[in-house]
Design a protein that fits this description.
By secondary structure, the protein is an all-alpha fold. Helix content is 75%, strand content 0%. The chain has one domain: Formate dehydrogenase/DMSO reductase domain (Formate dehydrogenase/DMSO reductase fold, Up-down Bundle). The mean pLDDT is 87.
């Protein structure tokens, strides 16, 4: 008989938990948008056939950059999640150590393949590299979903005693497949909308290639969003009964967050169908932010009542927090300056 397994109690927080929660939500939403463009853009460049393939390949030049941005944006939410849920997150990472530790290499190889394929996308010889990169990014998404589902299911940690080699897979979890498909379809939608956004100026100027890219991007966005509504419904009802009941009227905050997310996604879809790229993009970004909040509520409700970060003691240490804010402001200023330099140089090159 295996011994019982239970997570360690949480440690005292250096600042009120709400500060870390807000930072986690904001940084994770930014990371998720970049990841969606990277994964979805690679899939669109790979899967778009026929005469639209040239328009799809225009995403190729942006993919290495978006992968690099996504990797860098992954660090802040990982740190904030570690503060609030470290005993769950790291326990899940240890259970899946073999795959978790390979995640970074998998993503870097995908980045190298996309970087190699970037100047050769119009050639058939680049297709194997794009295919391999897409498979690696999909594998990375499976690794992340595996850790995410294990991190909220301590009961599944008992699998360690039958598989102590760090290769525990949580594929049997009822939420695993719909959660992963929900993420993949969201990536296709966001990447399609991104293609439409970066093409709208050329389309407005009457450029035929720009118009084709815009239409293709909106087609991917609207169709993937429609599928996402169905997959999201599947994901909702795959959650434990008390959790999905909370989103269907059992908990006011959870119900309101889900309703706001769905309404914003619906508004983005309507704007996309009507060809209004700008409003569709704003509604889509707001929808992603709302769904990040829904995701966090799923985690809180799944871990309750055994664990709640709001119940952790606080031992204030505001010095490191203000140092973080100063470093963040400085980094943001440098990033804005770098983007401005890039745009000015690109304008002169044009």
């Amino acid at each position: 008989m295996h011994p019982p397994v239970s997570p360690a109690p949480g440690l005292a927080l250096p600042s009120p938990w709400g500060i870390f929660e807000v930072l986690l939500l904001v940084t994770f939403a930014a990371h998720l948008l970049a990841v969606n463009v990277a994964l979805g853009g690679t899939l669109i460049a790979l899967l778009t056939p026929g005469r639209d393939r040239g328009a799809a390949l225009s995403l190729g030049g942006k993919l290495p950059t978006t992968v690099a941005i996504a990797v860098n944006l992954a660090i802040p939410p990982l740190l904030f999640a570690s503060v609030l849920y470290g005993q769950y997150l790291y326990s899940a990472a240890v259970l899946t150590a073999a795959t978790w530790l390979s995640l970074f290499m998998v993503v870097m190889i995908a980045y190298a393949l996309l970087y190699y394929a970037q100047p050769r996308l119009a050639l058939a010889a680049s297709r194997p590299a794009v295919l391999a990169a897409a498979c690696l990014l999909l594998a990375a998404s499976l690794i992340l979903v595996n850790v995410s589902t294990l991190a909220v299911r301590p009961a599944a940690w008992m699998a360690y005693f039958d598989n102590p080699g760090g290769t525990v897979l949580n594929f049997a979890d009822a939420t695993f497949l719909p959660r992963w498909l929900h993420f993949v379809t969201a990536s296709l939608a966001v990447a399609g909308l991104f293609l439409a956004v970066i093409s709208r100026k050329a389309a407005a100027a009457g450029d035929a290639a720009g118009l084709a890219r815009k239409r293709l991007g909106l087609a991917w966005f609207t169709r993937a969003t429609m599928v996402q509504f169905l997959v999201g419904l599947w994901f909702l009802f795959s959650l434990p009964r008390e959790v999905h009941f909370a989103f269907l009227g059992g908990d006011g905050l959870a119900t309101a967050a889900l309703l706001v997310g769905v309404l914003l996604a619906g508004a983005a879809l309507v704007q996309g169908v009507q060809g209004r790229v700008g409003p569709a993009a704003w509604f889509a970004v707001a929808s992603v932010a709302a769904m990040v909040a829904v995701r966090e509520l799923v985690r809180l409700l799944t871990l309750a009542p055994a664990y709640s970060p709001a119940a952790l003691p606080t031992l204030p240490q505001y010095g490191p927090f203000f140092m973080f804010l100063a470093a963040f402001a400085g980094s943001a200023a440098v990033a804005v300056w770098a983007v401005g330099c890039f745009r000015r140089r690109a304008g002169r090159g044009a």
